[in-house]
Amino acid sequence: MTETIHKGSVPSYGEPRLWRCLSFCRSRILTRVRLFCCLAGYVMAATAQAHEALPSPSATTLAHELAQRDSATATLQQHCATPITAHLLDRKAPATLQQDARLALNATPTEKLEIRHVQLLCGGEVWSEAWNLYLPDRLTSQARRTLANGHTPFGKAIGESNFSRQRLNSRFTDLPSGIMLENRAILRRRTDGRNFAYLIERYTDDALDIRAWRETSSDAVPHQEPASAP
User: Fold this and answer.
1) What keywords is this UniProt entry annotated with (predicted)?
2) Which of 6, 130, 168, 177 is deepest in the core (most CB within 10 A)?
3) Helix/strand/coil for 199
């Protein structure tokens, strides 16, 4: 029997093939669009993360300036119109930090390890927070007496000319809120090169503005809460 094809009509056997072709093309296009969106999202997230990981120019400038001297207190003092003072918070440190200090200082099991957790202030502003873990038997009697009162910064009590600093590392990220730089270091006696102190120094957002000299009172009460333990 002869199949009759009306004028202007499309044979039915061609429609499934056409729809399969269109569906295939649409699927490929959607797949590529999804892939493009995923890649674009990944690139944007990676770029944002990279920008967050970069320290601010002010933080790197402060880190560079601190690296030029053995005494961090002396560096800060150059930008404070009043004497830098120490505010004693406590004499505690995590057990792991004490172990790290003993190892770094080559301390014997019987040597006493003293701890000072302080804030350094320019007037009423907290510019840094520090853990000073040191071996008092390796200090002069005068330095031990000065450190006992808790109000004299560590570097000032020892005297910058009496020690050298070995910088261990600097950190700009993964720090407590309000802290933009952390330095770790070991101090050595200039006389014989013996290690005597292990330091962790954290610098606050206020320290970013150390270029501006301030006429403030050293009797002001510190307004910043201590950072979490290192």
Assistant:
1) Signal
2) 130
3) strand
Please indicate, yes or no, if residue 6 is contained in any of the structural domains: no
For CA atoms 93, 157, 144, 89, give the dihedral sign.
Answer: negative
Which pair of tokens denotes residue 158? Answer: 């020892």
32/115 same-domain check: no
Return the amino acid letter for 113.
L
Number of domains the chain contains: 2
Structural tokens at position 154: 């560590």
Q: Is 108 helix (H, G, I), strand (E, B) or coil?
A: coil
Is the pTM here over 0.90, yes or no? no
Token couple for 33: 């669009």
**Closest Cα partner for 88 from 143, 150, 147, 156?**
150
Compute the half-sphere exposure of residue 218: CA atoms within 13 Å on the CB side of its CA.
Answer: 12
Altogether, the residues listed in the chain come to a count of 230
| pLDDT, tens digit only, all 230 positions of the chain | 555 545 555 455 456 666 666 566 666 665 665 655 555 555 454 444 434 445 676 788 889 999 999 999 999 998 898 999 999 999 999 999 999 999 999 999 999 999 999 999 998 899 999 999 999 999 999 999 999 888 999 999 999 999 999 999 999 999 999 999 999 999 999 999 999 999 999 999 888 765 443 444 344 444 567 888 88
Contact 89, 225 (CB under 8 A): no
> What is the three-class DSSP state of 138?
helix
> Are 41 and 80 found together in one domain?
no
